[in-house]
Write a structure and sequence with these properties.
Elements lengths: L8 E6 L5 H10 L1 H5 L3 E4 L10 H11 L2 E6 L1 H5 L1 H16 L4 E6 L29 H36 L3 H14 L9 H27 L3 H14 L6 H15 L19
Parallel strand pairs: 1-2, 1-3, 3-4
Helix pairs in contact: 6-7, 7-8, 8-9, 9-10
């Protein structure tokens, strides 16, 4: 897959505009993760002038892998945050499409909220506003987000490897190589325990060689160069048995040679060994 690059984990930030300052502080503490290209965060202040704001929100929420709910009394009182963004985020969480992380900003009773069963940040759901040093709170939150992003990235790579296994079983060699280029772009040291990549690469090279020889054999047939055609198709059969209609072409070439070769005293047959000469 030419040009494959590392894909950051997409983070959607759901918050009330009354908590704008908290959202800005959070983003400052996510800079390290962004520089590592581990996460790519989005919030509604990124909506461009003239853009349909609800479409932009829905699009980014749907493609997110982590959804941060910045919880406060203002968040819970917001119909859009609570009834639309949070509801869809929890649906994605339940289906395994995303991970929802509540981040408790200010004191509020969220014990009966639909997200109350989820592990919140900071530890024990202690509101950021209650910390004597808020940087300590944000540091803990950033580390929690980092852990979640790394777990999701690992899961994504494992799913890609499982996809490569399926493609390998279907003998789709180029697709296997493409998937591995994507995996290596994400994690250069990802272990290939089954040796799929090297095996697929060799099979792909063999298939390409067989195709090249098959095309040469056709050209030799067109030129009625039957001996050269025979060598090409025999080598194709050795490299990739059943390649296209090689078997039928080989039988035709053998008939042509049999009809053109005069009877002669037999000699011991020396097995022909393929060499990379110009056929």
């Amino acid at each position: 897959m030419p040009g494959a690059t590392h894909q950051p984990v997409k983070v959607f930030i759901s918050y009330s505009h009354k908590d704008e300052r908290f959202r800005q502080q959070l983003q400052e503490h996510l800079h390290t993760l962004r520089r590592r290209n581990l996460v790519e965060d989005w919030h509604d202040r990124r909506i461009a002038p003239g853009q349909e704001w609800e479409d932009a929100i829905n699009e980014n929420l749907e493609t997110s892998e982590i959804v941060l709910l910045l919880v406060s009394s203002s968040f819970i009182a917001s119909p859009y945050c609570y009834e639309k963004e949070m509801k869809r985020a929890l649906e994605k969480h339940e289906s395994g499409e995303a991970r929802v992380i509540p981040v408790i900003l200010r004191p509020v009773d969220w014990s009966d909220a639909p997200f109350a069963h989820l592990q919140a940040l900071p530890t024990n759901g202690r509101p950021v506003a209650k910390w004597s040093d808020r940087d300590d709170a944000w540091l803990e939150i950033a580390r929690g987000i980092q852990q979640a992003a790394e777990e999701l990235e690992k899961k994504r790579l494992e799913e890609l490897y499982a996809q490569a296994r399926e493609l390998y079983r279907d003998r789709k060699w180029q697709a296997v190589v493409d998937v591995f280029e994507q995996i290596r772009a994400e994690e250069p040291d990802f272990p290939d325990l089954d040796g799929l990549f090297e095996s697929a690469r060799q099979a792909l090279e063999k298939a390409r060689r067989a195709t090249d020889l098959y095309d040469r054999g056709l050209r030799h047939m067109d030129a009625e160069e039957w001996t050269q055609a025979l060598r090409c198709f025999e080598e194709v059969q050795r490299l990739e048995p059943g390649h296209r209609d090689t078997e039928g072409l080989l039988a035709r070439v053998q008939r042509e040679l049999a009809g053109r070769t005069p009877m002669r005293k037999s000699h011991p047959t020396v097995p022909w060994e393929y060499a990379d000469f110009d056929l």
